[in-house]
Amino acid sequence: MLDKIALTIAIIGGINWGSIGLFRFDIVSWICGGSTSVLSRIIFTVVGISALWCISLLVRDRSEVFKTSSDS
């Protein structure tokens, strides 16, 4: 479950970076009142931690990554 949450947050962060690259528009900063606001910094930190967690998806055994709750 933690893998799915981290992946979802990382994807949302990627969409935000895409909007910055394509449109020069930072969605998180727009919603939270600027890139230096505390809430924006917390969101950026959570996205970064999620991306670091997702690195583990690359190095884990495939059967472990795609294991479902019914496989237990």
Task: Write a brief structural summary.
The chain is an all-alpha fold. Helices cover 75% and strands 0% of the residues. It has one domain.
Topology:
Blueprint: H1 2-23, H2 27-32, H3 38-59, H4 62-65
Helix pairs in contact: 1-3
Tally of strands: 0
Give the helix/strand class: mainly alpha
Number of helical segments with 4 or more residues = 4
What form results from the Cα inertia axes?
A: elongated
Question: What is the strand content?
Answer: under 5%
For the record, the count of structural domains works out to: 1
CA(first)-CA(last) distance: 14 Å
Instruction: Work out the helicity level.
Output: over 70%
Radius of gyration computed on alpha carbons:
15 Å
Describe the structure.
It is a single chain. By secondary structure, the protein is mostly helical. It has one domain. It has helices spanning 2-23, 27-32, 38-59, 62-65. The longest helix is centred in the first third of the chain and has 22 residues, at 2-23.
Question: Which labels suit this protein?
Answer:
72 residues, mainly alpha
